[in-house]
Hints:
The chain is mainly alpha-helical and 334 residues long.
Amino acid sequence: xxxxxxxxxxxxxxxxxxxxxxxxxxxxxxxxxxxxxxxxxxxxxxxxxxxxxxxxxxxxxxxxxxxxxxxxxxxxxxxxxxxxxxxxxxxxxxxxxxxxxxxxxxxxxxxxxxxxxxxxxxxxxxxxxxxxxxxxxxxxxxxxxxxxxxxxxxxxxxxxxxxxxxxxxxxxxxxxxxxxxxxxxxxxxxxxxxxxxxxxxxxxxxxxxxxxxxxxxxxxxxxxxxxxxxxxxxxxxxxxxxxxxxxxxxxxxxxxxxxxxxxxxxxxxxxxxxxxxxxxxxxxxxxxxxxxxxxxxxxxxxxxxxxxxxxxxxxxxxxxxxxxxxxxxxxxxx
Length: 334
């Protein structure tokens, strides 16, 4: 199959072909010629099949070498993190913590499931199809228990509280994820918990849904759903790389630089004549969609939203929460 200009490069770099090996064909050809000449000089009796095997091994060796632009990841490792299915990710162990009470998403899901289970497996939705006011009130009351609460002084505009589901982003996000993950569904004006999910909840508790919800947000949920940005830039592909980096150093500014270095093509997705530069737009997307509405919603990190204190710039540093390290254990060097 012919490789298109915008297809992922066959070398496993994670970049588009046109921005990677397509412009370097002559150099690759020269390297292959050098490899062939060296092998034949050392082993003049090599058959064509043996030569092909040796060349393939050399290509694999190159793809397994650490790459400075990838913070020490090899192209092969990066390709796995970008394109492998959730259950085939390598050099990271994803575990379900024993205690999920610090995760807003999982606490809200517990409220939804408990309400359904107490009513025979379903409950009535509002006329707009939202969660009932009773659940919204219960979910809002949980805010003081979360690590983000010191930074959520104005509850009327908090992501973690609201008067109804439309004004309560974290709760709405949870409900949408639960539907995407196949845990609940809406029919005939009611929210139902699937029979299989009811059984899982009875046998394993809320832990049964931690990985399905995590897989839904990393592969299926539209990260731009809750914001007003017009840019159609899908950051989900890079979620594990970004998570690895932020867990390594906690610096949002350093994360921005690492993403732009590893994936420079992302900047091409933004207009150059916009009020903000492509770099600034990418930074805003990462902070909104990855830091705030993924990591914080899950209880993985907390970040002071203030940019200035007493006229001084505040360093953009996140506070890593225990849930993050309990969930993700990386076996690659930082």
